[in-house]
Each structure stands twice: as C-alpha cells, then as structure tokens.
Design goal:
By secondary structure, the protein is an alpha/beta fold. About 45% of the residues lie in helices and about 10% in strands.
C-alpha cells in the first residue's frame, strides 16, 4: 500500500457514505437496551447481508433500491438471531435514516469546501436514505452533490456507478479523490481510475482485488492536508 504524504492535482473529494461518513453500526447500538449482547452480532449480520444482496442482485439483474435491500438484510439478521419483534424492526429501520457520522466528518467536509475543493457523496444508498442522513448530520451545506447508484439501477462495484461522479462533477477520474472505508469499494474505485484513499477505520486486512488504493488512513482527519487543502 502506498503511503504518499500528498496527492497532487485533485479537484474533487468524493465520499462513500455508509461506513465512511456514517457509522453503520449506530442503529443497532442505539437499540442496545432492547438487544442486549445481540446488538453487535445483529449489526454485523445486517451489514454483511446488505452488501451481499447488492452484489447478488446486480449479478442477477434484479435491482431493488437500497432501502428495500436494507430491510431484507435486517429481516435475515433478525431471523438468524431469533428476534421476532416488529416494533424493534421498525425502530431499527428508522434509525438507519439518521445514522451517526464519525466525529471528524463535519469539520473535514467544511475544511475541504473552504479550501475550494468540490465535495460529493457517491453511494449505493437510495436518494431518500441519503437525503435523510445528510440532513440529520447537518452536512448538506458542505456538499456539492449527493449521488445515488439508484440513478442507474445497479450497485457498486459496477464501473458505471463510479462514472456517475465524473458525469455529475464534470471532472476527470484522475482528478477525483475517492474515499471509502470499504476495501472492496476502494479497490474498485482505483480500478476505475480514481485516486483513492482507503479509510481503514478498523485495521482490516487488505483485499486481493484489482486496483490499488493510493493511501490508507485510519480516519478522514488527515484528508485535507493530503489533497493540499491548508488548515483554516
């Protein structure tokens, strides 16, 4: 993994949403009183199936938006843990619309914007989900675009999803820095042609996939300096 101290020639920073800006474990964690020691297994099963269903649906050609996929993945996770509680399910889904951001997110986005960098989200999330999360976090003013894979009805890692950021921002791939905490996403974005920061928040093992992220960080805090935006 390369560990450059600076990425030159970057005009836009584009962010994955779930796991990168928003904590995907937060919904289950906020229900820890009801779930007890099952909250973390639920969070892990839910997220794992959510991702798997996007890939499988893309391969099967049976697209459903991310809200439906998220609900189906939650149903699998709850069944697996023998949790039969419709009220809890409704609460978990509602909480997914207002996931907590990681602590540094707001300041990083505002610093990038103040430094003249274009900023955007590129996510599998449905427009409704992304708008709710952005509004709840109060970061909409620091984003130039919120782009959903729903626009083309296929999920990452399809190259066409990454092309959406190029089309919306009118910036060449080599001048876009893409951030994701999901290693598979970071590799796919690099393979597409973005410069890529893998935000490895949980010290995960690197993937053996096409593409090679340029930089690995453990949070977004160092990103502004990395792309040449001075601290304000």
């Amino acid at each position: 993994m390369m560990t450059e101290t600076r990425l030159e020639g970057i005009d836009a920073c584009v962010f994955d949403a779930y796991g990168t800006l928003f904590d995907v474990n937060a919904a289950a964690q906020h229900c820890a009183a009801e779930l007890g020691d099952k909250w973390q297994p639920l969070a892990e099963l839910w997220r794992g199936r959510q991702l798997q269903y996007t890939w499988l649906r893309s391969l099967m050609g049976t697209y459903a938006d991310f809200w439906q996929v998220t609900g189906e993945a939650l149903d699998f996770a709850m069944d697996s843990l023998e949790l039969n509680d419709s009220v809890l399910r409704e609460r978990l889904m509602e909480l997914y619309l207002r996931l907590d951001t990681y602590p540094e997110v707001g300041n990083v986005l505002r610093q990038l914007q103040a430094g003249g960098m274009k900023t955007a989200i590129l996510s599998n999330g449905s427009p409704k989900m992304l708008q709710a999360a952005v509004d709840n976090a109060g970061i909409g003013g620091a984003l130039d675009a919120v782009i959903s894979a729903d626009e083309i009805r296929i999920y990452k890692t399809a190259p066409a999803v990454y092309q959406l950021a190029v089309d919306h921002l009118d910036i060449a791939p080599s001048r876009i820095c893409f951030q994701s905490s999901n290693a598979w996403d970071a590799h796919a974005a690099s393979n597409f042609g973005f410069r890529v920061v893998w935000v490895n928040r949980f010290a995960q093992t690197r993937e053996r996939l096409p593409g090679n992220p340029d930089v690995m960080l453990d949070s977004l805090e160092a990103l502004p300096a990395l792309v040449g935006v001075a601290a304000s």
